[in-house]
Design goal:
Blueprint (H helix, E strand, L loop, with lengths): L7 E6 L3 E6 L23 E4 L11 E6 L9 H7 L2 E11 L4 E6 L8 E9 L4
Parallel strand pairs: 2-7
Antiparallel strand pairs: 1-6, 2-3, 4-5, 4-7, 5-6
Length: 126
């Protein structure tokens, strides 16, 4: 039995894959906020990522592709946190001029209309 993986490289439009990150990369301690102020984002609140903006830090990050086909407008936090993970992909490059990125996927299936969630795991090629 041959169990070798043969990933595919695919080009995906920014509009085809919606990417979210849970919370922010780092939080200032509550004591650093102005008196009476509270954080705008919770630690478990999904934040939509705009891949066309520089500095998003999504190149070579492993993304979990969720069972959601489109992010619902209402109660997105519940929907994303409760969704099943279908598989994982890696964004290997971003082409901001043409609004697309190249992803490394385990199969040639389409990612159009899918929702993905970033983590902190980075892809490192051996």
């Amino acid at each position: 039995m041959d169990l070798a993986l043969s990933p595919h490289s695919s080009v995906v439009s920014f509009d085809d894959l919606t990417i979210y990150r849970i919370g922010q990369d780092s939080f200032a301690p509550s004591s650093a906020l102005p008196i009476g102020a509270s954080r705008a984002l919770g630690e478990m609140q999904p934040v939509k990522i705009d891949p066309s903006q520089p500095g998003q830090g999504i190149v070579n990050i492993v993304l979990a592709v969720l069972s959601l086909t489109e992010a619902p407008e209402m109660d997105i936090e519940e929907a994303i946190l409760d969704a099943d993970v279908l598989g994982f992909v890696v964004i290997t490059s971003i082409d901001t001029e043409n609004n697309r990125f190249t992803v490394l996927v385990p199969s040639a299936a389409s990612l159009a209309g899918r929702v993905a969630l970033t983590g902190s795991i980075q892809w490192q090629e051996a």
